[in-house]
Write a structure and sequence with these properties.
mainly alpha, 37% helix, globular
Length: 75
């Protein structure tokens, strides 16, 4: 989905956290139209130009850590 679409970015913490956990644990993402898509993602991208990006990143990281998801830097 193009980033110009208002549904393309999650700018609130609970939504971003829920999506990250769904991707990391359930291997599923909810699409803007409500459908769900099974995926096998090895990485997640958090865009630094999203409003509140630093706080969103902290929230997502804390939730992933709490859920026992291994987080590693790309080499």
């Amino acid at each position: 989905m193009p980033r110009t679409d208002p549904r393309a970015l999650h700018t609130d913490g609970p939504t971003a956290v829920a999506q990250a956990l769904s991707i990391a644990i359930r291997h599923r993402v909810q699409l803007a139209d409500g459908h769900r898509l099974d995926i096998d993602a090895d990485t997640m991208c958090l865009h630094g130009d999203t409003p509140g990006a630093a706080e969103l990143a902290r929230m997502v990281r804390a939730a992933l850590d709490e859920a026992g998801v291994e987080v590693a830097r790309l080499e």
